[in-house]
Design goal:
heterotrimer; A: 724 residues; alpha/beta; Dimethylsulfoxide Reductase, domain 2; 26 helices; 16% strand; B: 392 residues; mainly alpha; 16 helices
């Protein structure tokens, strides 16, 4: 198989492509036809097609049942390790995501003011032309760094980065700093990898700090935890709310928000001081234990009890139980624990806790990177050199944050402040930063500073609503994406139906846009199928085979046992992180006092529900059918003392803004906390099901960022609640 | 005994007719909306309360208050107590109209009224409701036949009237059998809800209790209908006959009370009598008003012999026994519990009939009253003393 | 042809995380309207007072009873029970009387109170996905449940499995398999960590609720015939007695001169 294409071939392909573009037709009919050929669909265009879900980042494999060219049911793909044949409620609702009556199916160009929602339909030619003109204009006037590119991690990430790098902008925003920077950076410091894999099958004891697995469902992991509980595994859940996970846990600790660091430091204290750690493992595979032992002695359970509001005896007991269960004990690193600035230190403490009980290769396993897969890729010319600083402060303000992860909220703030330089354009793909970034007001203000905003989306989400051009992506049931590696297999996402309207895959969009930007050389694939074929080239497997099977096996890694290693400076698990120390930060986890609400204020908690994913699914009628009203949770005793009753309308105010919402009086939350389900309070009237529901927590969130990991601290926002 | 009456069945209050017509009109509109937009559009019925006012009032109570017909037919034809003949035709008419009102109510309440005849071709023999349906339809035919002579005489088609008179007997017996069956079966309807009907009412002998109480209701209905007709149509009241009927009521009620309390004792449910809050209240109200008070009243000869006494006593029985029907079919029935904390598809857990529901029942009832008045005006419902051919 | 001779479910309330995937799957699989459902969440939900709290919820749908009360009650026989356990509703026969809704002790049948004559108001309820189980798949709710709170299989085996789970964790479960005998046995077996009434289930004995009703119904025709016979006999008897009375009460007919004997 040719791995490079001559310039002449390339021109031929692009000529064809241009012609096809002019015709407005490209991918669709061949997909169905090929599916028919390979027995996936019968003559009546009915059958099962394997693909992957995109209702959240877990990307369960699915089997789409198609009848006469329409998706009628989705099933979990038993071959996919993330689903094992199951789909969560969002996965099951996926066809309503594709058939949502509010789908954006043609390119749209704004005609009114930003936020008015007035758009006109345009052809792809015109729309892409407008986008390219604006992007080139910004590049010429202000330099490529004046263009911000942001996306939430998705399967076409590599091509997104390709566009970004080819264009020459360093300003790459992802959702990661809104989610798990604390965890990733902590693991990088400790284990030299972003996140170890977990295996529940032998566990006897689990500590969950947040990570509401029963509501923030990752199908296979949720299932694994459930099975573990069923087996009788002891689960300790730290959460200021009695979540559905807490309800399944053996022990629920209603910990004070922001203080789980104290809890974990105290656990470390007990395990170290009582010599409950796995000494051989610690001495063979870890570095810096002595430094930990020195600093940890101050963090006694008695000290922690006053801070966390958990009795010292409980903390001590849990530490002993945890250590006694070693190595079948695991402290789950979650995404960001209590979502405070000190969460980075908490993640460090958790990582070390796991190291102390020596659960490596028992419960925690090295994670393979995406690079070492054996898949091919189209040839890439080298990228232009970028001299401009990143707006998000990486690495000059945040030396420990990987470039691919960035600090998104910092990027937004820089776009607003114009420091160190003013950005002028924002290219957004599969992301809703208007709602996902803390402080929606600021984000909208930052939008106001942009000369040009373009969004690729399937629905008129809030970010699209405020954009100048909206490009319709084909939904995940309607498109190809690059192969997705899970374990030792690469899974395919393929269209199961013809894309509706003018929807196109992002692979296509990036390439077409790239061409108009003069960057065609960086997109050396003829079409989506060609891209996949190039990925499969080293494996010697045909695309049609993969489409039928749903995946391709990757070359197995050597199974012979080798000494565990970690990609840290010492090559060992770094209890003491020399990297952090060199940056003048504490090398071992240390206590950081979290802020506390003033009198009359509440902690504003956020968290997940099983029926929605972040900020893009609230318009799905099937999910809406079975979801709870998104009201503000408040503790029953607290409500009574304030003279508030269930369903009362209240105004919630923070330093960032205010919202109006109705109350849900409940026993399931700490008296000093309130909780709002994220993802509601949309401004876009293009979401006819979601518009008018609930309130937007982002309107309330004050932007706080951890200086080490760049993670945002959503739960550090405090609010007042008053009846209206 | 001679009757001294000339009937001047002038409906005294013209405004009353207008009011009745107005109610009928409103009910008609409501029914049309129901057919267009569904039962939920004009009622508060829902998945937790599939049966409500219409079933309790129009079906249960409506059938019960039509029980005078078969009683009188049996009295006159089977037991040949000819002196009660003057009471026969009005009670047949009442029963006939009563059952027509039941059918009309069903035509609104059924999801598919156009399929009401399916009960004749698709028959599930274990279904109490089937039995009621078949019996009601057949009995309606029987009542039509029993009432036909009145119509024929009104039309001066004496020969046809004669023919029916000759062959009335089998129909009377059929009518009594059918009435026994479905008066008791209304109670049997609740047999399949032992977990839902409160123990103070649910018993395997519900059909027997319903039949016995139907006798007392039927007797009271005859008293009531006669009293009201006398008032409105300026007739004399056959007090002497009514007095005899009234004498039976305490006996029937005594038997009813015996069986009712006996059953509670045997089932070990006496414990619920006083400790059940609202249920106890409903039970004792029913017993005191429907059983004890009339038992006492009608035991007093003076009451039995006075116009007012007869009317009052009858009303009290009817009130109490109507409450019984409402208790059994609605008030004492606990529907699937609303511990669904998901915004619920099982709506209307607390059911109160909507105004349109109430007006529909009022409208149907008004139609019945109007029809009764018209029949009385144009047909020889209130016999003069001229005897007809004795039964063959 | 399904795989099992008696299709049944176990719902394990200790495994259910109230994610509602089963409900979305059912809605999609059976093309249910957005404002209707065949499966719903029941139970007291959150119980207790902060911080001593517990959750108790259950998803349920038709129990596919061994002795279906809806089937017994329906006047036109619009329900039937397949040999392999499914209780199915036939809209073609339904007259919309809603007696089945009263009969079902679980409140399962739901009715289209919002549909008029032209649209057609019918009962709707779980069918146990015959379109799936007849081709060897599990019902939609079971197939997707991420925590295996719902499992599907041969009833006899599932009863054993349910008891085995209780044995393995006696501190976790209420020592009873609901539906094993309730109402004569159901196809939806339930395991719980809280009393079953807290899940919204009625307390039922092992006698199906239709039992008394059916026994009484068996009497109907014999009773009718007997009562008819009694009434006829009474009528005849009374008539004869009255005739005799009349005859006796008549003024004596003048004795006729004996006819002259013709010589």
């Amino acid at each position: 198989m040719p791995s490079s294409i001559s310039r002449r071939d390339f021109l031929k392909i692009s000529g064809v492509a241009a012609g096809a573009l002019a015709l407005g037709k490209f991918l669709p009919p061949r997909a169905a036809e090929a599916a028919r050929l390979y027995g996936l669909l019968d003559a009546a265009s009915s059958g099962y097609i394997p693909s992957m879900c995109e209702m959240c980042v877990w990307r369960c494999g699915l089997l789409a049942k198609v009848e006469t060219g329409r998706v009628v049911k989705l099933e979990g793909n038993p071959d996919h390790p993330h689903s094992n044949g199951k789909l969560c409620p969002r996965g099951q609702s996926g066809l309503m995501n594709t058939y949502d009556p509010d789908r954006v199916l043609t390119p749209l160009v704004r005609v009114g003011k930003r936020g008015e929602g007035k758009f006109r339909k345009a052809s792809w030619d015109e729309a892409l032309g407008i986008v390219a003109d604006n992007m080139l204009s910004i590049k010429n006037k202000y330099g490529p760094e004046a263009m911000i590119f942001s996306t939430t991690h998705c399967l076409s990430q590599f091509q997104f980065e390709n566009l970004l790098n080819a264009y020459g902008s360093p300003n790459y925003g992802t959702q990661r700093s809104l989610c798990f920077n604390a965890m990733i950076v902590s693991n990088l410091m400790t284990y030299g990898m972003e996140e170890p894999n977990r295996d529940y099958s032998q566990l006897k004891y689990i500590i969950l700090t947040g990570r509401n697995l029963m509501e923030a469902i990752s199908t296979s992991e949720t299932s694994a935890l459930s099975k573990a509980i069923d087996r009788g595994v002891k689960v300790v859940a730290l959460d200021p709310r009695f979540t559905k996970t807490a309800a399944k846990a053996t022990e629920w600790l209603a910990i004070r928000p922001g203080t789980d660091l104290a809890f974990h430091l105290a656990l470390l204290n007990v395990i170290v001081s009582e010599h409950l750690y796995n000494a051989p493992f610690v001495s063979s595979y870890t570095d810096g234990f002595d430094k930990l032992a020195g600093s940890i002695s101050q963090y006694t359970p008695e000290w922690a009890a006053g801070i966390t509001e958990i009795p010292a005896d409980t903390i001590r007991r849990i530490a002993r139980e945890f250590a006694a269960a070693a190595p079948y004990a695991m402290a789950h690193n979650g995404w960001r624990t209590s979502n405070f600035v000190n969460s980075f230190q908490t993640e460090r403490a958790i990582a070390i806790l796991n190291a102390l009980v020596g659960n490596w290769n028992v419960a925690m396993f090295p994670a393979s990177g995406e690079e070492s897969s054996g898949l091919g890729a189209p040839p890439q010319p080298s990228y232009p050199r970028i001299s401009a600083q990143r707006l998000d402060g990486v690495p000059w303000k945040y030396p420990f944050v990987p470039l691919k992860i960035g600090v998104f909220q910092e990027l937004r703030d820089a776009a607003l402040s114009g420091m160190p330089y003013q950005a002028h354009g924002w290219f957004i793909s599969r992301q809703n930063p208007a709602m996902s970034l803390p402080d929606r007001g600021r984000t909208l203000q930052a939008f106001g500073k942009m000369d040009f905003i373009v969004t690729i989306d399937i629905l008129m989400n809030d970010t699209a609503w405020f954009s100048d051009v909206v490009l319709p992506e084909a939904s995940y049931l309607e498109r190809y994406d690059p192969l997705n590696i899970v374990g030792d297999k690469a899974f395919i996402r393929q269209p199961v139906i013809e894309p509706q309207g003018e929807g196109k895959s992002s692979l296509w969009i990036y390439k077409e846009l790239g061409k108009l930007l003069g960057l065609g050389d960086y997109f050396q694939y003829a079409d989506d199928e060609d891209y996949l074929k190039q990925q499969l080239a080293p494996l010697g497997v045909s695309l049609d085979d993969v489409r039928q099977k749903g995946y391709v096996d990757l070359p197995a890694e050597s199974t012979e046992f080798s000494e565990p290693t970690w990609s840290t400076p010492s090559g060992k698990i770094e209890i003491f992180s020399s990297t952090l120390a060199q940056g003048n930060f504490a090398g071992v986890p240390q206590w950081e006092e979290p802020p506390v609400p003033a009198a009359g204020q509440f902690y504003l908690l956020t968290g997940k529900v099983a029926q929605f994913t972040q900020f893009g699914t609230q318009n799905n009628q099937l999910l809406h059918k079975y979801s709870d009203d998104p009201r503000l949770w408040i503790n029953a005793a607290t409500a009574k003392s304030l003279g508030l009753a269930d369903n009362d309308p209240v105004e919630v105010t923070s330093d960032a803004g205010k919202v109006h919402i109705r109350l849900q009086v409940t026993q399931a939350i700490r008296p000093d906390c309130v909780y709002l389900t994220p993802g509601f309070g949309h401004l876009s009237r293009g979401l006819t099901t979601a518009y008018g529901l609930g309130a937007c927590d982002s309107d309330l969130h004050v932007t706080y960022t951890d200086p080490i990991s760049g993670g945002q601290a959503l739960s550090q926002t405090f609010v007042t609640v008053k009846k209206i | 005994m001679k009757m001294h009456l000339t009937i001047n069945p002038r409906l005294r209050l013209q405004p009353l007719v207008l009011v009745l017509l107005a109610f009928m009109g409103i009910a008609f509109v409501i029914a049309m909306v129901r057919y267009a937009s569904g039962i939920g559009a004009i009622s508060n019925l829902g998945n937790s309360y599939p049966w409500g006012l219409w079933i309790s009032f129009d079906l249960f109570t409506g059938v019960a208050i039509s029980s005078g017909g078969f009683l009188m037919a049996a009295t006159v034809y089977i037991f040949e107590l000819k002196q009660f003949k003057p009471l026969l035709r009005p009670s047949i008419l009442t029963a006939f109209l009563g059952y027509i009102m039941v059918v009309i109510a069903l035509l609104v309440d059924l999801g598919h009224p156009e399929r009401i005849w399916y009960m004749m071709i698709h028959m599930n023999p274990t279904s109490v409701l089937l039995e009621i349906g078949i019996c009601v339809m057949t009995y309606l035919a029987v009542l039509a036949i029993e009432f036909a002579p009145v119509v024929f005489e009104g039309l001066k088609w004496q020969k046809f009237a004669h023919i029916i008179h000759r062959f009335i007997m089998p129909f009377v017996i059929l009518g009594v059998v059918l009435s026994t069956l479905h008066q008791s079966s209304l109670g049997s309807l609740l047999l399949i809800q032992p977990a839902k009907l409160y123990p103070l009412w649910w018993t395997p002998i519900l059909p027997i209790l319903f039949f016995i109480s139907a006798l007392s209701i039927g007797l009271s209905m005859i008293l009531l209908e006669s009293s009201l007709s006398a008032l409105y149509f300026h007739r004399g009241l056959e007090t002497h006959l009514l007095e005899k009927l009234a004498r039976v009521i305490p006996i029937v009620l005594a038997v009813y009370a015996l069986v009712r309390f006996g059953q509670l004792a045997i089932a070990g449910d006496l414990q619920y009598l006083f400790i059940s809050g609202l249920m106890s209240f409903l039970f004792w109200t029913e017993i005191i008003i429907g059983v004890l008070t009339p038992m006492i009243l009608f035991s007093i000869k003076r009451v039995r012999q006075s116009r007012k006494g007869l009317l009052a006593g009858a009303v009290i029985v009817l009130f109490g026994m109507t409450l019984n029907r409402f208790n059994v079919s609605w008030f004492a029935v606990q529907h699937p519990d609303p511990i669904t904390y998901l915004p619920t598809f099982m709506s209307n857990v607390h059911y109160i009939p909507s105004l349109p529901e109430v007006f529909l029942s009022i409208g149907i009832f008004s139609a019945g009253i109007l029809a009764f008045g018209l029949a009385v005006k144009y047909l020889p419902v209130f016999e003069d003393e001229e005897p007809h051919n004795p039964p063959a | 042809m399904t795989k099992f001779t008696q299709n049944a479910f176990i719902f394990d309330a200790t495994r259910c995380i109230d994610c509602r995937a089963c409900m979305v799957a059912c809605s999609v699989e059976n093309n249910i309207a957005m404002d209707k459902t065949r499966i719903w969440v029941a139970g007291i939900g959150l119980k207790g007072e902060y911080p001593r709290l517990e959750r108790a919820s259950m998803v349920y749908h038709c129990m596919h009873c061994a002795a279906p009360d809806c089937l017994s009650a329906c006047p036109v026989g619009a329900y039937n029970k397949r040999d392999d356990g499914l209780v199915l509703y036939n809209a073609k026969k339904c007259i919309g009387c809603r007696y089945c809704m009263n009969a079902c002790p679980f409140g399962v049948p739901h009715f289209d109170f919002d549909k008029g004559l032209i649209e057609g108001a019918f009962i709707d309820k779980c069918t146990m996905c015959p379109q799936r189980i007849d081709i060897g798949l599990e019902p939609a709710c079971v197939a997707t449940c991420p925590t295996d709170a719902l499992v599907f299989g041969e009833r006899a085996d599932l009863v054993k499995e349910a008891h085995a789970r209780i044995q393995a964790h006696p501190d976790r479960y209420v020592d009873h398999v609901y539906g094993e005998t309730e109402n004569g046995g159901t196809s939806y077996l339930i395991l719980s960590h809280v009393p079953f009434t807290e899940l919204g289930l009625p307390a039922l004995g092992s006698l199906p609720v239709k039992d008394v009703s059916e026994k009484v119904m068996e009497f109907t025709i014999p009773f009718a015939l007997g009562w008819g016979a009694v009434l006829t006999a009474t009528a005849v008897g009374v008539h004869l007695v009255n005739q005799k009375k009349e005859a006796n009460a008549k003024p004596p007919v003048e004795a006729e001169e004996p006819a002259e004997v013709k010589k």
